[in-house]
C-alpha cells in the first residue's frame, strides 16, 4: 500500500463554515458545468427499492439514538440480526465489551451477513449502525451533549446494506458477498482518534477467516443527502484505486456520473482505514457536505429517497458487474 500521512486527518472538516468548504471543493478540481445538477432520470430498472430503504431510515430513528449501552442500541441490534437471518445464508455476530479511554464499558456488536460464505471471490460492503452520543455541531449550543438521531449518519448506510440484502435474496449472487454492520464508529473523538472506529478496528483484528481478502470493499456512510455529491476520498483513491475506479465506472454506466464525481476533495477518518491497514481493498463512499452532520437535526426529513435509490442501485450493480464473466 502507498504510504499515508502518519496522523489521521480530522474527520469533521466540515466544522469550517460551509462557504469555506465550497471554496475548497472548487479549488480542488476543475468543476464541470452541471456537475451538481440533478441526476439524469433513472432509465434503467433497479433491483434496489428506494421506498423500503427510506422506511428503514425512519424505522432506525424510531428506535431512538443507537448509542452503545442504550436500550435503542440493543433493540436495533436485535432487529438487524433478525432481518439479516431472514435474508442471508449465514449471520455471524461478534460481541465484545469495549473499555473507553475514560473507563466506561460499552457493549459492542458487529453483525456480518454472508451470502455464499464458502466462496473465495467476495465483495465486502460495510456501514456503521451505531449513532453518535453528542451533537457537537448543533446550531443550538444547548444541545451539544444530546445524542443525534442519526438518520443520515448511521441510518442511510444501514438502509443501503439492507436493500442490497433484499436484492440478493430475490436473486442470489454468483459471487460471495459480505454485508458488515459495524458498531462504535461514532462514539468518541475524531480529533484525538479516541474511541472511534471501534467496530471496524475489532473486525480488522478478528477477520472471519485466515487470509480473508475480499476482491473489493466499500464503506457506505452518509449516503442519503438530498443533494448528493460523492468526491473521491483521498485515502480511498490511494489505498484501493482499482476499487474506486470500478465503483465509479459502474455509477457512470448507471447514469449517476454527476453524483459520483471525478473530483478528489478530502481525507476522511472512517471505518475503511482500519481495514486498509490490514491490507483489505476498501474505499469510503461518503458525502460529508451535509449541513446537519453531528446535530440533532439529522432527521429522516433530511434524507432523500431518490439519493438512497441512486446509491442502492450502484451498490447492487457493482455486485452484478463482479458476477459477470
Ligand atoms: Zn458521525
Structural account:
There is one protein chain. The chain has 325 residues and is α/β, with parallel strands linked by helices. It has helices at 18-28, 50-62, 71-85, 151-170, 198-205, 234-239, 241-253, 272-277, 305-323; strands spanning 90-99, 105-115, 122-128, 176-182, 216-221, 230-232, 260-264, 282-286. The protein has a single domain, classed as Aminopeptidase. The strands form 2 sheets. It has a 6-stranded mixed β-sheet with strand order 1-2-4-3-5-8, sandwiched between helices. A two-stranded parallel sheet has the order 6-7. The structure holds zinc ion (ZN). Zinc ion binds next to loops. Zinc ion (ZN) is lined by residues 132, 153, 186, 294.
Q: Which characteristics define this entry?
A:
8 strands; 325 residues; 9 helices; Aminopeptidase; binds zinc ion; 6-stranded mixed sheet; 34% helix; alpha/beta; 17% strand
Give the SSE layout.
Layout: H1 18-28, H2 50-62, H3 71-85, E1 90-99, E2 105-115, E3 122-128, H4 151-170, E4 176-182, H5 198-205, E5 216-221, E6 230-232, H6 234-239, H7 241-253, E7 260-264, H8 272-277, E8 282-286, H9 305-323
Parallel strand pairs: 3-4, 3-5, 5-8, 6-7
Antiparallel strand pairs: 1-2, 2-4
Bound molecules: zinc ion (ZN).
Provide a short characterization of the protein structure.
The protein has about 325 residues and is α/β, with parallel strands linked by helices. About 35% of the residues lie in helices and about 15% in strands.
Distance between the termini: 28 Å
Morphology call: globular
> DSSP helix count?
9
Architecture, according to CATH?
3-Layer(aba) Sandwich
For the biggest sheet, the summary is:
6 strands, mixed
Total DSSP E strands: 8
Low-confidence stretches: 1-39
Query: What is the CATH C level class, in words?
Result: Alpha Beta
Amino acid at each position: 500500500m502507498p504510504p499515508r500521512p502518519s496522523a489521521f486527518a480530522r474527520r469533521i472538516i466540515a466544522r469550517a463554515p460551509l462557504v469555506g468548504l465550497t471554496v475548497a471543493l472548487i479549488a480542488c478540481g476543475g468543476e464541470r458545468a452541471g456537475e451538481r445538477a440533478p441526476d439524469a432520470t433513472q432509465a434503467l430498472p433497479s433491483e434496489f427499492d428506494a421506498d423500503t430503504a427510506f422506511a428503514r431510515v425512519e424505522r432506525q430513528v424510531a428506535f431512538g439514538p443507537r448509542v452503545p449501552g442504550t436500550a435503542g442500541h440493543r433493540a436495533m441490534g436485535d432487529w438487524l440480526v433478525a432481518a439479516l437471518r431472514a435474508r442471508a445464508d449465514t449471520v455471524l455476530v461478534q460481541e465484545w465489551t469495549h473499555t473507553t479511554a475514560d473507563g466506561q464499558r460499552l457493549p459492542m456488536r458487529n453483525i456480518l451477513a454472508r451470502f455464499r460464505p464458502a466462496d473465495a471471490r467476495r465483495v465486502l460492503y460495510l456501514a456503521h449502525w451505531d449513532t453518535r452520543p453528542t451533537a457537537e455541531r448543533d446550531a443550538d449550543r444547548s444541545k451539544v451533549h444530546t445524542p443525534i438521531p442519526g438518520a443520515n449518519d448511521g441510518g442511510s448506510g444501514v438502509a443501503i446494506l439492507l436493500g442490497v440484502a433484499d436484492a440478493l435474496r430475490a436473486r442470489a449472487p454468483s459471487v460471495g458477498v459480505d454485508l458488515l454492520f459495524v458498531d462504535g464508529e461514532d462514539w468518541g473523538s475524531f480529533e484525538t482518534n479516541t474511541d472511534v472506529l471501534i467496530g471496524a478496528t475489532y473486525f480488522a483484528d478478528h477477520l472471519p477467516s485466515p487470509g480473508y481478502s475480499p476482491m473489493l470493499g466499500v464503506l457506505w456512510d452518509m449516503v442519503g443527502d438530498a443533494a448528493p455529491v460523492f468526491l473521491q476520498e483521498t485515502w480511498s483513491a490511494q489505498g484501493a484505486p482499482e476499487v474506486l475506479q470500478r465503483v465509479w465506472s459502474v455509477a457512470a454506466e448507471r447514469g449517476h456520473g454527476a453524483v459520483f464525481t471525478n473530483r478528489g476533495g478530502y481525507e476522511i477518518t472512517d471505518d475503511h482505514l482500519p481495514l486498509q491497514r490490514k491490507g483489505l481493498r476498501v474505499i469510503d463512499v461518503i458525502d460529508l457536505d451535509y449541513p446537519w452532520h453531528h446535530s440533532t437535526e439529522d432527521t429522516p426529513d433530511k434524507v432523500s429517497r431518490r439519493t438512497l435509490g441512486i446509491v442502492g442501485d450502484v451498490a447492487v450493480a457493482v455486485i452484478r458487474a463482479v458476477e459477470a464473466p
